[in-house]
Amino acid sequence: MSELKERLLPPRPASAMNLRDAAVSRPSPSGRAPLLGVDVLGLKKRGQGLRSWIRVDTSGNTQVMEVDKFTMMRRCDLPARDLRLLDPLFVYPSTILGREKAIVVNLEQIRCIITADEVLLLNSLDNYVLRYVVELQQRLKTSSVGEIWQQENAQLSRRRKSFDNGFENSSPDYLPFEFRALEIALEAACTFLDSQASELEIEAYPLLDELTSKISTLNLERVRRLKSRLVALTRRVQKVRDEIEQLMDDDGDMAEMYLTEKKRRMEGSLYGDQSLLGYRSNDGLSVSAPVSPVSSPPDSRRLDKSLSIARSRHDSARSSEGVTENIEELEMLLEAYFVVIDSTLNKLTSLKEYIDDTEDFINIQLDNVRNQLIQFELLLTTATFVVAIFGVVAGIFGMNFEIDFFNQPGAFRWVLIITGVCGFVIFSAFVWFFKYKRLMPL
């Protein structure tokens, strides 16, 4: 990995490295990890407009290019808004766009342009980007052996097939270059999101168990941060899942992503036009000069028209059959990673439900404590009322007047006994009333 990093990325000036480190240290407001290792200083130089790209061809060879925005637009036949999705200075949701000559992929850290002959990635120091390049090289070099075996089988199959079937794949398990690159990008994105979900899951369960045993401000703050990270990660996983599901539901978008098939058809149509022009030139017809309708015989014109109509119908029927078959292959590929990303989403959903259950349990505990405090306050208020009765009796007998009851030797004792019994009866009556109304546990 380090050798590939040194070979792909030449050393940069110290000022650029300091600016890059400062940009990376700033957290993203969406919770998404920023693209590491991007030369922000070079990106902000709008005067030059050159950006470093890593090019990987069909043989697995890599090359570093310095290309400006408009050259890349002409090279891949893409509008400016599609290239803006790959800009590391902006945070865009995950997107997979199928265009006429390229596929624009923006999946987490993987931002690339896939064509029928090459993959173009922004030159970055991010480990996930370098792993993507290494994995793509390994698979392309491994598949070269399979391609040789397929070419040998194709030579035998051409003897049994007509010229029209020569543009179809001889093996149903074969995937074109753009789908292999897209598969690695989907695998990298799904693996990255699943690893983050696993790390969050490992961190969450012990923290939630600790919170249930000890409710404190520190634990509540840690759970709040954990929940915010969970919401951000769930949003990103949901966006990738929705993007794959949208592609699976739209056959037109999947058909647009068959770049190798469209390239072969275009080359076949050009070859057919050239052969037709050569046939007419051999017959002595001028291609450049217009043919007069009076001089040309009507039978030849009818024959050319009927042949062109039959050829167009045959080509359209054959292309529709090929697109339908190929869409099934791409749909199976997308469905496999849809299951993976859906499993990650279910894992996050289960974690969110566990957090919600923990919050409900904590709220129940707090409500129970609050109810106990209210019951204690009610008993304390009742006891205060009973004690106040003694104060009323003491205030009455403390007035400055003379009665015969004060001269009796046991008067004070009887006053205390009668007042205490009355207070106890009143307190017991209040407690019975509270239990009768279910204001206190029995």
Automatic annotation (TrEMBL):
Q: Which InterPro entries does the record associate with it?
A: CorA_TM1_TM2, MRS2-like
Task: Tell me the membrane topology, using the record's own terms.
Answer: Multi-pass membrane protein
Localisation:
Membrane
Please tell me whether the keyword Magnesium is annotated for this protein: yes
Question: Where is this protein primarily located?
Answer: membrane
MF-aspect GO terms:
magnesium ion transmembrane transporter activity
Q: Name one GO cellular component term.
A: membrane
Pfam families per the UniProt record, alphabetical: MRS2-like
User: Which Gene3D superfamilies has this protein been placed in?
Assistant: 2.40.128.330, Magnesium transport protein CorA, transmembrane region (1.20.58.340)
| Membrane-spanning intervals of the chain | 378-399, 411-434
Where is coiled-coil annotated? Answer: 223-250
The answer to whether keyword Transcription applies is: no
Q: Which keywords are on file for this protein?
A: Coiled coil, Ion transport, Magnesium, Membrane, Transmembrane, Transmembrane helix, Transport
Q: Which domain of life is it from?
A: Eukaryota
Q: Which family does it belong to?
A: Belongs to the CorA metal ion transporter (MIT) (TC 1.A.35.5) family.
* Functional note: Magnesium transporter that may mediate the influx of magnesium.
Protein name (record): Magnesium transporter
This protein's species is: Cardamine amara subsp. amara
